[in-house]
Amino acid sequence: xxxxxxxxxxxTSVFAAIILVMTFVPSLGYILIGITELTLIHIPVLIGVFLxxxxxxxxLGLIFGLGSMLKAVQVNTGLAIAFINPLVSIxxxxxxxxxAILIFKGxxxxxxxxxxxxxxxxxxxxxxxxxxxxxxxxxxxxxTGWNTSWLNFVALVIxxxxxxxxxxxxxxxxxxxxLYPSVMLISTVVHTLLVLFSILLFSKQxxxxxxxxxxxxxxxxxxxxxxxxxxxxxxxxxxxxxxxALKQIQER
Length: 252
What we know:
The chain is mainly alpha-helical.
C-alpha cells in the first residue's frame, strides 16, 4: 500500500472517530437551542473534503448521516424524531459531501482561471452573508415582535464586522486562503438547506405537531437563516485554521 493511501486511511479514521465523538458526547456536535439543534459535526466532514480523496470524503458523509440517525433513535424527542428516517439523516449528508466537493472544485476553477477570482469569490460570499443576515433579522422580528428597524440596524453592523473579518483573513500573501472559508461558508448553507428540505419533504406532519402552525415553510426558513448562518460562520472560523495547519503538514 502506498504511503499516500496509508495517510488517507489514517486521516479518514481520525475524522470518523471525531465525528462519532461529536455525535454522541452531549453538547459537542449538536448544541440544543429550544427544540432545534446547532450542528457542528459537518466541520470535520468539510475538512476531509479538502484533504482526502472523494471516496474517503463520501465515507465521512455516510458516517455523519449514520451517526445522526443513531443519535435520533437515542433521543427520540422533538425534531430529532425526523432524523430517524434515513432519507432525512443519511441522504442529505451524502448529497452535501458531493456538492461540497463540486463547490470546492468550482471555486478553485474560478480562482485559477481568473486573475480576479478571489475578488469574485469574495463578492459571492459577501452576497450570501448579507442576504442571510437580512432575512435572519426579519425572521427574528417576526417571531419575537422586536422592533424591525433596530434589528435591521444591528444586522447591518454585524454584516459589516463579518465582512471586515473575512476580508482581513483572506487578504494575505497566499490568495489560496480565500477558498477555505468560502467553501466552508457556502457548503454549510447548502447542508442546512438540504436537511431542512428533507424534513419538509419527508416529515412535514411532524413539523405541524411540533410547532402547532400551518406555516411550516416559515418555520424552516427561520431556522435556515438563524441556525444556518451561525453554523456557517462557526464552520469558517473553526475549520479554516485547522485546514491551513493540516495542509502545511501535508505538504512537508
